[in-house]
Structure formats: C-alpha cells, structure tokens
Write a structure and sequence with these properties.
Strand order of the largest sheet of chain A: 1-2
Number of domains of chain A: 4
CATH topology of chain B: Helix Hairpins
CATH architecture of chain B: Orthogonal Bundle
Order of helices and strands of chain B: HHHH
Shape of chain A: globular
Helix content of chain A: over 70%
Structural class of chain A: mainly alpha
Largest sheet of chain B: none
Oligomer: heterodimer
Chain lengths: 642, 119
Amino acid sequence: MSDYLFLIPSLPLLGALLCGILHARGGKARDLAGPVANLAVLGSFLVAVLAFLEIRGHEAEALVYEGFTWIHTGTLLLPFKLHLDALSGFMALIVTGVGLLIHFYSIGYMAHDEGRAKYFAYLNLFVFAMSLLILGANLPLLFVGWEGVGAMSYLLIGFWYDKEGGWPAVAGQKAFIANRVGDMGFLIGMFLLFTNFGTLDVAAMKEAPALSGGVATLICLLLFLGATGKSAQIPLFVWLPDAMAGPTPVSALIHAATMVTAGVYMVCRMSFLFVQSPTAMAVVAVVGAVTALLAGTIALAQRDLKKVLAYSTVSQLGYMFLACGVGAFSAAIFHVGTHAFFKALLFLGAGSVIHGMHEEQDAFRMGGLRRHMPITWITFLVGGLCLAGFPLTSGFFSKDEILWETVSSGGSAAYALWGLGALTALLTAFYTFRLVSLTFLGKERFDPGEVHPHESPWTMTLPLVILALLGLGGGLMGLPAVFVEDGNWIHHLLSPVLAEGRPFASEGGHGLDHAQEGLFMVYSSIIAVVGILAGLILYRNGPERMAGLAKTFRPVHVLLAGKWFVDEIYQVCILTPLAALSRFAGWFDLGIVDGLVNGLGRLFQGAGFLVRRVQDGHIQSYAMWMAGTTTVVLAWLVMQLW
Amino acid sequence: MIASILAVLPAAEGIPNPSIPTSWVLLLAALLFILGIYGFLVRRDLIVVFMSIELMLNAANLTFLAAARERMLDPEGQVYAIFVITVAAVEAAVGLALLIAWFRLRATLDVETAVELEG
C-alpha cells in the first residue's frame, strides 16, 4: 500500500491554494497563511518519513503510486506515477524537512510584509513542484516539477519586484532565461531517450539494454546541460548570484538547499545512463571541479553577505558534480544532504543578520555582531565550520568523501581533479571565515547611533539551532571506513539504486586503500584549518588590513571582484549579437515581410480604386457598356465574315 | 408600317408574300432594336425605359419570324417568337411591380435616382 505517496506533493498544493485565498481575503487573514503553509509542509514531511521508514531494509524496492493516465498518444504512454526509492526518499526528506524549517523561519522573517500570504503560497507551490520533481517516475513528470520549481524561483526572486529600481524582477528573468537554455538541452535529451528506449519511465529505461557509446554520450551531455542550468554550473551559473535579490529564506530554500540540487539529483537518477559514457562522466567531473574553483575565487572578493554565500553554493554544487563525474553518486547525494543543512543554516543566519541590521547586506559595514546576536553568531559559526570542512562536522565528511573518491578514482586525471578540489576547499575555508570575521568579530563598523542590531525572534532562531545541530551531526550519515567499518549509512542506503561507474578506473584502477584514505583525510583537515585560521587572522580587524593586499594585486582583485567578468563576456559575445539579430529580424519582419504583404494589398487597393469608378450605379451607363462592347464584338465578327 | 407587317405575315393560303424581301424585314427589326437601345440609354423615365425594352424584344421577335418565313414558315422560329412574348409578359408583370414599389419608396420614376449600388 503506497497510495499515500500522492499526499507528499498534494498537501503543499492544497496549502498553496489556501494561502492564495487568504491573500485574496487580505487584512488579518493573511497572518493565517504562515501557519497554514507550515502545516502543509509538516504533513508532507511526516508522510515522507513514513514512506522512508517503509522502504528501509529493502532499499532496492520502491514505493509506487500510479494515478491517472496523464498523456497517452501514439506509443507514448505517461501515467501520473510517483516513485519513491532510497534516492528519492532521501531527497524528499531533505526537501520537506529543510523546507519545513525554512517555512517556519519565514513566519518571523516575513511577518511585516504586505505580501506574506502570497509568499507562502509560492513557497508551498515550490515544495509541491520540488516533490513532483523528486518523485516523478518518468522524465516528463520530473520535468513538470523541474519547470515548476523554475517558475517559483522566478516568482520568488522577483518577489520584491518594485524594490531597488526593479532589479529583483530583472534578476528573476535572468534566472528563468538561463534555465531555459539548460531546459532546451534537457528536452532534446528526453526526445533522444524516447527515440532510443521507446519509453520515458526511468525504471523501464534502467532495465533496457545499454545504448551505443556515442548516443549515450550525446544524451548525457544534453541532460547535463539541463543540469548546469538548474544547478548553476559553468556555463550557466551566472543567474544564481543575482537570484539573491529574493527574500533570504528563499535563497536558503531554493537557491541553496533544494532546487539547485535538482541537477545533481537528476544526474544521479540517470546514473545508469551516465556510467555508459565515460566521456560524459569526464565532462561532468571537469565542469564540476572548474566551477567549484571559479566560484570559490569569486567569493574571495565579494562584499555582499549573500553574494559570498551564493558563490559558495555554486562552488559546492561543483563538488557534487565532481563526485557524480567520478562515479561517486552516493557521495554527491551525501553532500547534497549536508550542504542543504549547513547552507540553509548559513543563509538563514545571514537573513537574521540582515534583518537585525535593517536590510544591510555589506559585510564591510558590519562587525562585532557576536555581542548583539549571540544565537545567530553561534549557529552561523557552526554553519561556517561545516562549509569550511572543519574536522568532524558534516561538511567535512561529505567533502572529504568526494575528494577521496576523486583521488581514488584512478589515473592521473584524478590527481588533477583532486588538486582543483583541494584548492577550492582551501579557498572555501578562507572566504567563509573572512565572512565570519567581517560580520561577527572585530569592532562595529556601523554607526551604533543609527543602527541597533538585535537578535531575531524565536521563530527565526529555532530553525537556526535545529539546522546547526543537523549540520554538526549530519556527518553521522556517512562515516568513512577509517572511522567505522561499514559506517557509511548513506552509501549502503543509496548504492542499490545508483549505478556503479569509474570512468577513470581503466587508467590506473583502485590504487589507493584505506590507509591512504586516512592520510587524505588529514590533508583535508589541514587544508580546512589553514583556511579557517587565515580567514580569521587576516580579517580580525576588519577589511582594512587586506585592502593593501588588494591594491598590490589590483588586476587580480578587479578580476575577482568583477566575477571574472563572465556577465560582461556573455553580454558582449551573446546578448549584444542576439539583440542585433533581433533588431535585424524585427526590421526584416516589419520592412520586408510586412512590406511585401502590405504592398500587395495596397496594389490591389489602388487597382480597385481605379476600377470601381466603372460601377457608378447608373443602369444606363451599364447598358451603354453592354451595348458598346456587344457592338464592337459583333462588328469584329462581321469583319471576320467578310 | 401595318402594311409591312401584313406583308411579312403569311398569306391566307400559307404562302409568304414574295414581293417583300427578307432583308427589308431584317432592316425594320434592326431599326426597331436601335430605337429600343436609344430609348433605353437616353430616356430618364423608367416607364419609357421599360417600353424601350419591349421594343427591343419585339425587334427580336420580328427577326425570328423573318427567319422562319425565309425557311418556308419553319414553325421553330414561330414557336420562339411565342416564347419571347410569354417571357416578355412575365417580365412586364414583374418589372411593373418593381416600378410601383420603387415609386412608393421614392415618389419618382427618374432613373438617375436609382444609383444606390454605386461602387
């Protein structure tokens, strides 16, 4: 009996409906939206827990709910079918669980906003779409969720569309359009899958015989293009930092914990296909590693609290794809889970800081906040430690597992990828604690007479505390073999549903053993601690100390602060030519096409204008024409006779 | 005029009058037809225009009969003439009805006023 699965998406949908009605009622009714939305997600979470407990022990099996026939045309049969196995179950827990905490936090954060009921409606709709994405048993259903979360992301980024001169609305559009580029790849990939497998049901495709190498590579790369859009990887990562224009809980839920991991989830869901194509796996790994490093370097030079976190999200997502690329799918999902905890924590902490600082986001104008907001400070510190990979935190275990899986995947390429990953880890630790120092330590760099930082209400701090505990303890899900033999619970959970694949293994095989795993763990620890200390020491007295360094390496600083000018490059290389092409097309359409059609019309109009004078309405003139022409014709006939 | 019509008519014995050549009869028909066209084109009173049409119909009839006489009183041509007379009667009925309707509407029968269908 798994009919209750449909409750997981339905409850938030119902909640969204109710919130929408409450928004329309207006006034006091809008205060009810928060509790309603929270209850909906709570119900969804409880159902997910129930379902997850049911599949525990027999992970290879899946709960299936088959509803109505959604699309049936030709040979394409798509039922509305939900599918909960270990992978989607784990993801559903993350989404509804972290989602619930963020919903709860939002009650406090959005308490004074006019549009709070609308906000909760969007948030609930997001959970609905996200659970559909996760539970969809066939790719089109997954795609509906995929587009749904994209639409909600658009709406929530642009939630304050009238602030900052309309910038949030622009950022929302940017996110949506960047995603469309990826979606195109996803769609074409789906078409190819259908022509090759004749079905789009994931389980059925999994059972089908393997594809030939070239086709598999092409499909995987197209699907991966979709993933780069949703999960903000090179080349489509530019939208995520701008997505921070939305309310901070939205950044936490959508642009850190859940939606952006959808690409990773999709790649893992299709892992059986990806392992058929070592080429595609290599592309995934390299793109992931390079994105991780690139975003990490940009984060070094950002001043905006949320921008730093946004780039660190891009960077951490890069890690997840690196893990996918080297065939360590369970490590990727492990990192999805721990990242959801600590990044949601960091974003919510940032939200708490921004809330307490009266909408100030520039870390350079903060400092010393640990005295004013103790709970936020402690929890943010925990989140920072997790992100930096401080030993024994959840981030440490998941990141270390990715790095270990990378280096042990064999071949010289593995060492290069590990090098990128390790460098990124150093940068991550550094910029995280640069942020912690700038925000919470040192002297106050704001005017205490004007700004009175205060701790946030308990509705906001409670989720922080829970997430901090999860962040600290989350590593228990995947203890490495060095600590406890067979302690990697998440690996055991997920391995039955994920494919096995070592794209680089043929080059060198598993040359490294557990003793070395311990060694690499020590490396990771050293890297993290060095980065943390550097960040703490160099920025303990505010940004001035490092201003000299930034001046000395001015070109580098400009490059990093300017985000490698990727936006500008896209502007020049893609947007400007595209705009020129649009203008040309517009001119061609208006001038040539319309000109042709209108000109033809005008020709006939003019001809008609001339000819219509003949029809003057006088019977006698008609008769005159008739008599005249008849005479002429007759005369001609007579002439012929002669 | 009456004499010439009599001349065209067959004699009591059924023999056409040979002293009048067919070409004369045709010439007369042509004259009548031209008179009809002239009246139709020039006169502004709808009744007169209508009468001009009758004149043209009769010119056609005369032509039919002339041809029939030429072919030894071929009944075919005479039957056509009777057809034409019938149709002309019907047309007169409909046409006069239309004229009355028009007169009731406009209180005039000037053909120049009927220009509603100007292009």
